[in-house]
Design a protein that fits this description.
By secondary structure, this protein is an alpha+beta fold. Helices cover about 25% and strands about 20% of the residues. The protein contains three helices and five strands, in the order H-E-E-E-H-E-E-H. It has a five-stranded antiparallel beta sheet with strand order 1-2-3-5-4. Bound molecules: guanosine-5'-monophosphate (5GP) and zinc ion (ZN). The site of guanosine-5'-monophosphate has 12 residues, from loops.
Length: about 140
Amino acid sequence: MKDDNCIFCKIANGEIPSATLYEDDDFRVILDLNPASKGHALILPKEHYANLFEIPEDLLSKAAVVAKKVGTKLYKGLGAEGFNVVQNNGEPAGQTVFHFHIHLIPRYKGDTVNVSWKQGKLTDGDRQEILDLFK
Ligand code: 5GP
Ligand code: ZN
C-alpha cells in the first residue's frame, strides 16, 4: 500500500529522484538530504508503514539484512570508526517523516552527531510494572 501524501512513498518508488545507494524489490536506500554525518543514509520500504508497530515482521527482518549489507559498505568504504543504526517512532522520539525508515549513520572521531541520553534510575515500581507486562 502507498500513501499519496507521503514523500518517502514517492522517493522509495522512484517518483521523486533520490541519491540511491541500493534498491531491491522491497527497499530503496537513499542518502539523507540533511546528513548528520558523511554517509548518513535511510532505508525506506517501498510499501507504506508508518512505524515499527505497523511494518510486518518478515519485511523488518529483511530490513536488518539490508542495514548490515549497506552499512558495511558505508562503514568500510568511508573509513568510519563507529556506526549508529537509529529508528525513530513517534514525534516524542524524533520521528518527522511518518513512513518507517532506518537511519544508517557512520561515525567519526570528533564528529558532531548526537545520539545520546541522560542516564536515569530504574525505580522498584517501574521495574515491577514492566516485568509484569511480560508475565
Ligand atoms: P526522522 O526524524 O523521521 O527519523 O528522519 C527523517 C529523515 O529524513 C531526516 O534525517 C531528514 O533529513 C530526512 N529527509 C526528510 N525529507 C527528505 C527528503 O525529501 N529526501 C531525503 N533524502 N531525506 C529527507
Ligand atoms: Zn509512505
